[in-house]
């Protein structure tokens, strides 16, 4: 005969009722939770709590913060959920200093603008001062009187302003290591090459090259410069096949003739 205890249906009914009650309570709490969340969201969306309270601009060094916010067409008090992101970004990127812009919401009521600016690749020397030139070719306002550029080459352009945009793009392609070795850039147009350049380097060498293929031709400069005999006076031609032109040797030949 089996020793298992037999539990009658009547004994099990209270336990089943308790389980059903617990499940009903859990469902009720679940639906109450959803209702509460929806209620909070509805209040948030319909109240001033969802209006923009702060516009934060990050990443700008040259570009003016007020100009960026004005270009974005964002205003304190606007709904944070009524942003025209694509239009705002497009208009901010039309600013000459701005390479790219991103716009994001930071709940509950903050908007963040992340700016990436075009780097400075040179300073255009004019009679009234030095004008920073960006990689895009844009020219900014002159440096304060007395400020001397130290982080990028000085460019002497005179009548060559229309060619600066091409030079700016090329300067943006070369490494900082090479850019830092350039002291001055002078346009010396010739009949053969209207875009010819003369570069005065911080290591004492004079380089002749061209706006065309500038970044490609200047890339091997560090290794080529090591091979130049510094006791000789001449010009290092950085083109497809770099070579050093010894001016002392040419002068001696002219004297002999």
TrEMBL record:
Residue limits of the POTRA domain?
A: 50-118
According to the record, the segments passing through the membrane are: 28-45
* Presence of the UniProt keyword Hydrolase in the record: no
Q: Which domain of life is it from?
A: Bacteria
* InterPro entries, sorted: Cell_div_FtsQ/DivIB_C, DivIB, FtsQ_DivIB, POTRA, POTRA_FtsQ_type
Keywords from UniProt, A to Z, are:
Cell cycle, Cell division, Cell membrane, Membrane, Transmembrane, Transmembrane helix
Q: Which PANTHER family match?
A: CELL DIVISION PROTEIN DIVIB (PTHR37820), CELL DIVISION PROTEIN FTSQ (PTHR37820:SF1)
HAMAP family to which the protein is assigned, alphabetical: DivIB
**Function per UniProt:** Cell division protein that may be involved in stabilizing or promoting the assembly of the division complex.
Q: What family is this?
A: Belongs to the FtsQ/DivIB family. DivIB subfamily.
Protein name per UniProt: Cell division protein DivIB
Q: Which organism is it from?
A: Alkalicoccobacillus plakortidis
Name of the gene this protein is made from: divIB
């Amino acid at each position: 005969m089996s020793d298992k205890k037999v539990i009658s249906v009547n004994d099990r009914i209270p336990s089943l009722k308790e389980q059903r009650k617990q499940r009903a309570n859990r469902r009720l709490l679940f639906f109450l939770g959803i209702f509460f969340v929806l209620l909070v969201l509805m209040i948030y969306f319909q109240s001033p709590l969802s209006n923009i309270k702060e516009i934060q601009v990050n990443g700008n060094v040259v570009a003016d913060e007020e100009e960026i916010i004005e270009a974005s067409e964002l205003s304190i008090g606007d709904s944070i959920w009524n942003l025209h992101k694509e239009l705002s970004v497009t208009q901010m990127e039309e600013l000459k200093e701005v390479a790219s812009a991103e716009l994001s919401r930071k709940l509950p009521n903050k908007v963040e603008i992340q700016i990436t600016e075009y780097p400075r690749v040179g300073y255009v020397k004019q009679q009234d001062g030095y004008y920073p030139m960006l990689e895009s070719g844009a020219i900014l306002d002159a440096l304060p009187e007395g400020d001397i550029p130290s982080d990028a080459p000085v460019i002497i352009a005179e009548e060559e302003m229309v060619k600066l945009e091409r030079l700016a793009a090329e300067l943006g392609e070369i490494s900082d290591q090479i850019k830092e070795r350039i002291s001055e850039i002078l346009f010396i147009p010739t009949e053969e090459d209207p875009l010819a350049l003369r570069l005065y380097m911080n290591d004492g060498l004079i380089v002749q090259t061209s706006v065309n293929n500038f970044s490609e031709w200047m890339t091997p400069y560090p290794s080529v410069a090591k091979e130049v005999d510094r006791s000789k006076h001449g010009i290092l031609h950085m083109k497809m096949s770099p070579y050093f032109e010894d001016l002392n040797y040419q002068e001696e030949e002219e004297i002999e003739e």
